[in-house]
Design a protein that fits this description.
Elements lengths: L3 E8 L7 E6 L2 H13 L5 E10 L4 E11 L26 H10 L1 H7 L3 H6 L1 H9 L2 H17 L3 H24 L6 H4 L1 H8 L5 H13 L5 H13 L5 H20 L1 H8 L5 H12 L1 H10 L1 H6 L5 H10 L5 H15 L10 H18 L6 H14 L3 H8 L5 H14 L3 H16 L1 H8 L5 H16 L5 H22 L1 H7 L4 H12 L8 H15 L1 H8 L4
Antiparallel strand pairs: 1-2, 1-3, 3-4
Helix pairs in contact: 6-7, 9-12, 10-12, 11-12, 11-17, 12-13, 12-18, 14-15, 14-18, 14-19, 19-20, 19-22, 22-23, 22-25, 23-26, 25-26, 27-28, 28-29
């Protein structure tokens, strides 16, 4: 255990006490996790402390480094709390809530040993190794402090209680291992072991000990997943034993995929956040991603192929044997999607494309495993991050033309969701369009007037497809048309076309393209072009010339 670590405490909305949510040696991760809990509404208040181990007393000194949220409201009055801890027997440590707390409290130790809470709770050798060091005492102290404050008891009293509970759990596992209560999968086979424990009082615990021993021989996280899937392949056919088998196998799989080191080992260590989310999405919804990839090239390009143990797991997740794991994976994608980190830090355009691909895949997979409302809320949260100044500046960059800047912003606006985010994007586009730089550089551009007008028309159509409400769209479209009118007036393009020495049909065709908004933005240019077209079609000599060319 490091001499310094960071703890995240949360207080749920309406609650009166603080609970430990995370302990980490990474300061940045602790602060980011706390901010995420607050912004997502999972906590009404958050507190991050720096814990420094005092060498002389062997206890931690706490320094508050961040406090946010409604930190004062619930402290105004005390509320009675039950004196009985949540865990009163060794069996209570095997619940999903307890294992989650163990995973957070012992995150560093578990990562160094490359094991999960499931393995720790079923292997006597790991328990003895943990008990021999200081990590266990520090973990107990971390959970005892907030509970003592909550119950009005002394910290040492709570620590003694948990120490006794841990010792009872270790004694239980040691006794069951010594007496051979855990099946030996290598000797009797996994299917036979499942059938045998199915008739006992604690089938999940006993089979868990056998599975923990098997994956304990693995060479790493990926090998653990492979061994667990080998056991899944060998599961018994009878319904009761098969259900027990998959209930046991799902627990370590969920813990491996729930840890950053385990997920990185399975999917690849060099993925950025976007690549990791894309791979997790393919893992959780491979069937839907494959269908979309066959029809949409962008999805096929951005959603990475899986191989090895990851591909095998994806095949299993397509069925109904690991439903909780599939839901947990999808939920994790949504949670990390809302984090304040870039999906593709070096390439904002690819980030927009990846956001669209993820939205297509997760929206298609929503319903059975994820509520549509959660998917929508996650993308609204991510969209907020993409209209911030830092992302806009990275997207627009320094090498784009004025029209290129608007095109990039329009592409961004088209791919974000949420009414407030759309309004934010419209304000950015309006700011760029109404700026003097846009008008000055476009009018002074060396490109021909017809090219500039056609480009303005294209941008005007792009902005029109974004989905802005009329009161936001109208000023932008009007300004684009106004700039187009200035460019046309600078060179008198319409008059030049009308007087050009070319057949009347050719002149009219060029003017009609301008009048219809195809070759120029709607506004002054289209009005002038319409006027000139009407004027020409009324002229007798023009009508006579057209009569000679019926085509």
């Amino acid at each position: 255990m490091s001499q310094v670590h960071y703890e995240v405490y949360v207080r749920k909305p309406g609650a009166t006490s603080w609970t430990l949510e995370l302990a980490s040696e990474d300061r940045t991760r602790a602060i980011e996790s706390a901010e995420e809990l607050l912004t997502s509404g999972k906590a009404g208040a958050i507190r991050v402390t720096k814990e420094i181990l005092e060498a002389d007393t062997n206890e931690f000194k706490s320094v508050n480094i961040l406090t946010k949220g409604d930190v004062g409201k619930a402290d105004r009055k005390a509320v009675e709390r039950p004196a009985t801890p949540l865990c009163v027997a060794p069996q209570d440590l095997y619940t999903i809530h307890a294992r989650d707390v163990i995973g957070r409290l012992l995150e560093g130790w578990l990562a160094r040993e490359k094991v999960t809470p499931f393995e720790l709770l079923h292997r006597a050798d790991l328990m003895e190794k943990l008990d021999a060091g200081m990590d266990l005492q520090h973990a107990i102290q971390k959970v005892a402090v907030p509970q003592a404050q909550d119950q009005g008891a002394s910290v040492h009293e709570i620590m003694r209680y948990f120490k006794a509970l841990v010792e009872a759990t270790i004694a239980r596992v040691l006794r069951d291992e010594r007496k051979g209560h855990f099946p030996d999968i290598e000797k009797e086979g996994f299917a036979a072991a499942c059938e045998r424990v199915a008739g006992t009082d604690e089938p999940l615990y006993l089979l868990g000990g056998a599975v923990a021993k098997t994956i304990g021989r693995a060479g790493g996280w990926t090998d653990k997943v492979g061994r667990l899937l080998d056991l899944a392949d060998a599961a018994p056919p009878s319904p009761k034993a098969r259900t027990i088998a998959f209930n046991v196998l799902e627990t370590p799989l969920a813990e491996i995929l729930g840890s950053k080191v385990g997920m990185a080992a399975l999917l690849g260590p060099n993925l950025d956040l976007g690549g990791s989310l894309a791979a997790m999405t393919r893992l959780a919804a491979a069937d839907m991603v494959d269908t979309l990839a066959a029809a949409e090239p962008t999805v096929a390009r951005l959603m990475p192929e899986l191989d090895g143990a990851a591909a095998r797991l994806a095949n299993w997740l397509e069925g109904d044997k690991f439903p909780n794991l599939r839901v947990a994976l999808s939920q994790r994608v949504l949670t990390e999607l809302a984090q304040h980190r870039r999906l593709r830090p070096e390439d904002p355009e690819e980030e927009i494309a990846l956001l669209r691909a993820l939205a297509m895949c997760l929206s298609a997979a929503a319903g059975k495993h994820l509520p549509h409302e959660q998917v929508h809320a996650a993308f609204v949260e991510r969209s907020k991050l993409m209209i911030r100044t830092d992302f806009i500046e990275a997207l627009v960059g320094t090498g784009r033309t004025p029209l290129g800047e608007i095109e990039a912003l329009a592409t961004l606006a088209e791919n974000i969701t949420g009414a407030a985010n759309k309004r934010g994007a419209s304000r950015w586009i309006a700011a760029y369009v109404t700026g003097l730089k846009f008008e000055r550089e476009l009018r002074g551009s060396p490109e021909s007037p017809s090219v500039k007008l056609a480009s303005l028309a294209s941008v005007q159509r792009s902005v029109g497809r974004v989905g802005f409400v009329p009161e936001e769209l109208a000023p932008i479209q009007s300004k684009l048309g106004e700039v187009g009118g200035m460019i046309e007036a600078d060179c008198k393009l319409i008059a030049a076309i009308a007087k050009a020495k070319m057949p009347a049909a050719s002149r009219l065709a060029a003017l009609v393209k301008l009048a219809s908004g195809e070759a120029a933005p709607s506004g002054p240019v289209t009005e002038r072009a319409r006027t000139e077209v009407l004027k020409m079609t009324r002229a007798p000599e023009i009508r006579a010339e057209l009569a000679q060319a019926p085509g």
